[in-house]
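Lab manual, section 2.4: Encoding a predicted structure.

Procedure: take the sequence of the chain (523 residues), apply the prediction step described in section 2.3, and record the output as structure tokens. A sample record is shown.
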Amino acid sequence: MTAAAQLPTESSTTERAALWFSVTAGLAFVLYALTAAPSITWAHYGADGGELIAAAVVNGVPHPPGYPLYMLLLRAWLWLAGIIVPGSELAWRGNILSALLGSLSVGVTSLVALAVTPERGRRWMVAGLVALAWTVSPLMWSQAVITEVYALHALTIALLGWAVFVHPDRPWLLTPIAVLGVANHLTFLLLLPAALYLAWASVPPAEGDRRRRWRPLVAAALGLGIGALFYVRTPLVASVTPPPPVNWGYADNPAGFWWLVSGQAYRGYLFNVPGDQVFGRVAGWANTLVMQLTPVGLGIALVGFAYWDQRNPPRRNFALLWILPISLYAIVYYTRDSEIYLLPVSWLITILFGVGFVVISDWIAEKLHRPGALIPASLAGVAAVGLLALLLWRYPSVSLRTDDEAAQFLAGATQVLTPGSIVVSGRDFETFALWYGAWGSGDLLAAAPDTVLVNYALYQFDWYRRLMAARYPDVAGIDQSVQTLMAANATDRPIFFSEKLDIVPETSLSAVGPLWRYQPNAQ
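Recorded output:
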């Protein structure tokens, strides 16, 4: 065989990349599927899962901004998974969808690692390490075992990186990726400046063809426009009669639509960090990033960033443009789960981990005067063992295979409710579990028909009171307030609370299973 015949062809390289994608994604899916929650869960900020599934089943609108792409995908998947695995629980199907989407992000990430790894390194070996690191990073893993929008978000993040790193010569790839990104999660917009910069910097300004450098911007703008059209779904499904029970914003009018897509309900959280907690928020940001790959892994990633700083300034600038906006947003957005927004930062750190690994292994090989594959392969083995140890160490805290707290709450509530009950909830945890039981699985309404579910916190919004009136026109006082609802129905309907609220004296509540029964005449 001649030397020329031994050189890998473009076809063989593509086939090998496809195989590597399949292997890394397949292994990640096995891990995620085995550790997925069996039903609804409150772990890993996953309380929204019950609401998302209920919204998909009734073809409704979930919490802002409505997540139109995810709703379409989840609705189709619940139907398809029901055919593939008959009799499986809806919540488990939703969790498996996240496992599938998360594993696809791992496969795409391995392809990005192949593209950014310095040529002198063992690219396939490093791509495997990067894929493993992304698979077991706590943020990624935790979102791949629950029903949430962030596994799809992780896939769009990886696809955006794939477009600008692997195929910078194909700017029109940005169009479908921008469609997916903006139609799923609006924080995707914060990543576009970095991607557009790198796409622009990757095209040298050829004489007489300077317009080529602007094609990525045109492609992304087209994608954003098409992605925005997905939000037309919201007024279409919100305006049916009767309206779906999960119908945030009741967006059958412009005001309701804008309230939903602009996230008006959450604006108070933005830039609302108390002065004495700013340092704590920054420390939390740093801790989240350190915990993804441990201090050692983060140190290796910083070596990779230093390599880009010295050898590839455009990629250094890309990294800064990618990390800073989303980090600032996660810090100043004052919610308990804002660390989830750091998924893109965690992803890039994982990519930089691969770059840094090659730089360090080459440096060690040079110092030991041992060129060849022995040193990189040995270090890769050590790194792989370390990552597998991380998997085992994190397994007890990340795996939800035996988690049943939310499911037990719902089962207990279903047992104690009677037909015609009114259930008042306040927190997301109990509210969305009840919504799942009523409009997702349907078990709650099957056991207690005509049960009325209301949320105390949502009564502050006009759209919610209007929705309640449209859903329950025969229930007195339901379009006014919880207090009015209680006063008008206390003698005719059993009233339950999922948790104690300040508006009800504790002496009027008695524990019944996981709920509290309202007894207006109790002393």
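Check your result against the sample. Residues 21-398 form one domain.
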